[in-house]
Amino acid sequence: MDEEKKRPGFAGLRVLTLESRRAVEMAKLISNYGGEPIIAPSMREVPLESNKGALEFATALFDGSFDFVIFLTGVGTRALTRVVETAYSRERFVDALKSVQVIARGPKPLAALKELGVTVALSVPEPNTWRDLLRSLDERKDSLPLAGRRVAVQEYGASNLELLHGLEGRGAQVTRVPVYQWALPEDTGPLRNAVELLAKGQIDVILFTTSIQAVHLMQMAADMNLADAVRQRAALVAVGSIGPVTSEELRAQGLPPDFEPSHPKMGFLVKEAAEQCSAILRQKRN
Questions:
Q1: Quick check: bond before 244 cis, omega within 30?
Q2: Last residue of a domain, which of 157, 182, 207?
Q3: Number of separate domains in the chain
């Protein structure tokens, strides 16, 4: 029973969550810390209509056409494996990966690769951004040189042009491997409502748990001709970001975050938002 009692923190503030898959869980956390949750699912994961690119990657990998394969996400690593298994055996895919230098951008793709039994040549340290990936490669340029190397990059959602250009600028021949993409939710009503509430100054806290949420929020705001209003009002709102990758996108969208949690977990994000939001709002609104 005690766990169900509302904890002090948000004190009735209106807290916007753009979470989709875990919207109910997020709303309950916000309520438990005394907030009024505003739920606006902002995204859905959509498999590519054609798996042609992923299967072409597998064929090229089997033919020895790559020197490096970079895995950016755990979900994407597993999805790519499932796609390849529609045409080839998992054993053949794993054996092919063992013949190249495999790089994991952080713990999630690393865990997915361990499930496959694939050893990585490099695991990018926290906070696992594209800059950390390039920096790690620069530090290992003697053992993992990029110049003249053929590099495949497993993508997640939109392409990370900065990463692709950074690899190419270091002399790599880069091949994109799109595995899945993010789309707006089928019902955009709640997201449109959130944009209107933001533009009217009727939101106190926004919590972002992935970078695509920021992209889709501002895409919807632009479609509604409210992008400038949302950015202006966001300057008076406490903006929480799950971690550095999301924070980077928030800045690019003109929604600079006020804080990141001590651990990149949803529970920590809500708890620490409840603890910090009053001070953030006092500072921004005064």
A1: no
A2: 182
A3: 2
